[in-house]
Amino acid sequence: MWLAIENESEFGLNNLPFGIFSSGDRDKRVGVALGQYIIDVSALLDMDLLVGASAYDGLRESLLSPSLNKLMGLGNACRKWLRAGLQDIFGSELSAEKQQLIINKVLVKGDTATLYMPIACGDYTDFYSSRQHAFNVGTMFRGPENALMPNWLHLPVGYHGRSSSIVVSGTPIRRPWGQIKPADSEKPIFSASKQMDFELEMAYVIGTGNELGTPIKVADAMNHVWGYMLFNDWSARDIQSWEYVPLGPFLGKNFGSTISAWVVTPEALEPFRIEGDKQDLEVLPYLNRPEKSHLDIHLEVIIKTKDGVENLICKSNTKNLYWSVAQQIAHHTVNGCNLQTGDISASGTISGSEPDSYGSMLELSWRGTKPLMMKDGTERKFLNDGDTVIMRAYAENESGRIGFGEVVSELLPALDY
To answer: Taking CA 343 as the corner, what is the angle to CA 118 and CA 110, rounded to the nearest 5 degrees?
Structure first.
């Protein structure tokens, strides 16, 4: 590659994730991360460097859009063509004059740009697809004998969340108010949450959907996924535990979720597809998993305390998911539910079998009974005001790393009510 990028960059030519950025006189538009730079794809188009662009009507308009939705609406073939075109431009030998022209007109230094929510999300669904997480939570509340509900091994459990409160990395989240029932009281109280938590998840966005009444078959499900993002699904555990019976999560979840600014393509992750662990029960035929339907992506959670020191508290992996993305989509639409361009679904908390791989504070501190010690000498049962939660994800093999960028958000104190 003729462009010099930072050593060990997670945004190499084998990645090229998509996002939305602005910088200087460039309004919000589509960008692609390459090393420490952002590629202004519309500028490449204007320079006639993207061979075959005429095949995609509306391409220029989609590249100057403030979200990826219009580009996603052009289909998977457009995404694949665009990614291959970028790899050719930056991976080929170019004249010094053309290189300098691209550097001057196309590339933006990442540290001078502002990143935005990459997706205009219409609908959001949160699944509950990690068996260890479901078992841990069930054990805390019902005991190990009844940890998994009777339906859990038969279908991907999920619920419809709130898309309007999904925000991009870097956006603070404020501690919410709600009803809480203290253990020593028969009645609830109105209070700011005292049990703020993160949930380590992987999300995916739908590129092209399905017609109402027409299910997506499990074998075709991955053709509807445009890309993947790292996801922090914040939780107020004390609000959630009082309200969730009988209809499930509501105010304990819909106050905020944080998503990565970069969308990693299925093509970048293709080398990291693996077989999932054998499922315990034979599933109904519509949920039969395709081959290599899981991903091997390393996940980390860090709490940065007010003194600026980072504390690594969790290391997990997407291969810990029991239900695959293909199974989630097949179940989501088996009743004819219509997915649409820009819809986001998240995996649910991803926990492994070891205590340091649990993907939430609820599990890591075992409902507050095993506090975590921070480097500054303080303890955490749940999150404190001023804590910054940092999530990182990467896939890695002999050819390098595929990174997702960080998901970073500070927990702000509750407002006076």
So the answer is: 10
Kindly calculate the radius of gyration of the chain based on its CA atoms and give it in whole angstroms.
22
- What predicted TM-score, i.e. pTM, was given to this entire model? 0.96
CATH numbers and ranges of domains, the chain: 18-115 (2.30.30.230), 124-412 (3.90.850.10)
What residues contact 396, with CB distance under 8 A and at least 6 apart? Answer: 298, 402
pLDDT band at 335 (very low <50, low <70, confident <90, very high): very high
The tens digit of pLDDT for each residue in 240-282 reads: 999 999 999 999 999 999 999 999 999 999 999 999 999 999 9
Cα–Cα distances in angstroms (integers) from residue 47 to residues 44, 304, 313, 399, in the given order: 5, 43, 47, 31
Residue 307: phi, psi to the nearest 5? -80, 0
Residue 151: partners with Cβ closer than 8 Å, 6 or more residues away: 157
- Give counts: helices (H), strands (E), the chain: 10, 26
Q: Choose among 113, 110, 117, 69: nearest CA to 258.
A: 117
CA distance 376 to 308: 10
The residue with tokens 């998503």 is: 259
Q: What are phi and psi of 7, to 5 degrees?
A: -60, 145
> Which pLDDT tens digit goes with each residue over 154-172?
999 999 999 999 999 999 9
Report the candidate in 206, 63, 64 with the shortest Cα–Cα distance to residue 122: 206
> Any idea what DSSP says for residue 168?
E
Burial class of residue 61, CB neighbours in 10 A (0-12, 13-18, 19+): exposed
**Token digits of residue 264:** 């990693």
pLDDT for the residue 7: 78
Q: Please state the φ and ψ torsions of residue 302, each to the nearest 5 degrees.
A: -125, 140
In sign, the C-alpha dihedral spanning 267, 298, 10, 165 is positive
Residue 160 is a catalytic residue? no
**What is the distance between the alpha carbons of residues 46 and 40, in angstroms, rounded to a whole number?**
10
- In the block, tokens 């010690």 appear at 373
Whether residue 8 is predicted with pLDDT greater than 90 in this model: the reply is no
Spatial separation of the C-alpha atoms in residues 170 and 346, rounded to whole Å: 19
Give the DSSP H/E element, type plus range, for residue 346.
strand 344-346
Residues 6+ apart with CB under 8 A from 274: 292, 294, 295, 296, 319
